[in-house]
Amino acid sequence: MEVQALAKYVRASPKKVREVTRVIQGRKATEALDLLRFIPRKTARLVRKTLASAVANAENNHRLSSADLVVKFALAEQGSVIKRFRPVSRGSAHPIHKSTTHIRIVLTDNAATPAAE
What we know:
Blueprint: E1 2-10, H1 14-24, H2 29-37, H3 42-62, E2 69-87, E3 93-109
Antiparallel strand pairs: 1-3, 2-3
Helix pairs in contact: 2-3
């Protein structure tokens, strides 16, 4: 069974979030939570929060054990971009682009994954 959690409009660039999500793919959910606790980045905290939500969804909605869950994949998709302008000299302005990200984490139980993988 697959269970997912989605965090939308997270104020971090997708590239920075992808660096963290690559680390947890294919790992057990409990191991990934412990690993994210020790990565010293803001994006690790955001991914950890989303992963904890996915584990809670699995336990409460589908009655799955957290010990059996594996991170099938973790995606960092491009969200909307907040556009601002910064005033500079001689009355001109430079554009500022503030990226947002949608973090999607999909968990699966060990029984559903084939042993060949």
